[in-house]
């Protein structure tokens, strides 16, 4: 099982080495901004690396919204980051499920997701697997609860779309972790990546604050059980930098019996 961490984007391979990680995830630009990614000087090294590379799309991306001034640039930004991710040989581009505004029919959000994949297909395709991630909060989210996720997959499932399961988001979002992998796979048919995070907040709180794996409000044994059941690559998005994430990776290796590359 490949295990890695979300790291600073300046030198991801050095960050991976310092954590003994098999995989890294990073942003290609300011996660709160609308900039398309710049070509990276380390693109050749990243493509050739033993370490698996994942890219996380900016948080501002919300392709579901009915707000044209967010949705249209979000589509373009997502495609731009997919192109940037493909250029460095990324295994996937992770993007949050997004939401519609209060009072808007969620069905429109799901159809906006479908249009996003259609838009990409009309523009040469994403060029990299796009993995939609479950989110923790909001009452109008496309991928917080499994009932919404099922409707989202009805809309986009005909495209080559993957799924990233975040354990903190599921717990804080109000989905029990016990047997969650089976329930997710019944909807999506796949889990492409696990974001392995404990949660500082209570079940169903709707808050998104990650904690180290042995801390937080989720039983660490339950976390390990979910990750083992998913049988997918793992990225920790936990605090504490090299030490905190390095400990979390070691914790998973110890409990999952994983090996380094
Ligand atoms: Zn995540």
Structure description:
- This protein is of the alpha/beta class and 261 residues long.
- It is built from nine helices and ten strands.
- An eight-stranded parallel β-barrel has the order 1-2-3-4-5-6-7-10, surrounded by five helices. The chain has a two-stranded antiparallel ribbon with strand order 8-9.
- Helix 3 links the parallel strand 3 (52-56) and strand 4 (92-96).
- Helix 5 (146-156) runs parallel beside helix 7.
- The N and C termini lie close together (9 Å).
Topology, pairings included?
Layout: E1 3-6, H1 12-19, E2 23-26, H2 43-48, E3 52-56, H3 68-87, E4 92-96, H4 106-122, E5 130-133, H5 146-156, E6 161-166, H6 167-173, H7 180-188, E7 193-196, E8 198-199, E9 210-211, H8 220-230, E10 234-236, H9 241-256
The chain binds zinc ion (ZN).
Zinc ion is lined by residues 133, 166, 195, 237.
Concise overview:
The chain is α/β, with parallel strands linked by helices and 261 residues long. Helices cover 40% and strands 15% of the residues. The strands form two sheets. Strands 1-2-3-4-5-6-7-10 form an eight-stranded parallel barrel, surrounded by five helices. A two-stranded antiparallel ribbon has the order 8-9.
Helix run count: 9
Shape, principal axes of CA atoms: globular
Low-confidence residue ranges:
none
Average pLDDT number: 96
Bound molecules: zinc ion
Largest sheet: 8 strands, parallel, barrel
How many strand elements?
Answer: 10
Return Rg in Å: 17 Å
> Structural class of the secondary structure composition?
alpha/beta
Order of helices and strands: EHEHEHEHEHEHHEEEHEH
What helical percentage do the residues reach?
A: 40-55%
As a percent range, the share of strand residues is 5-15%
Measured distance between first and last alpha carbons: 9 Å
Q: Widest sheet: strand order?
A: 1-2-3-4-5-6-7-10
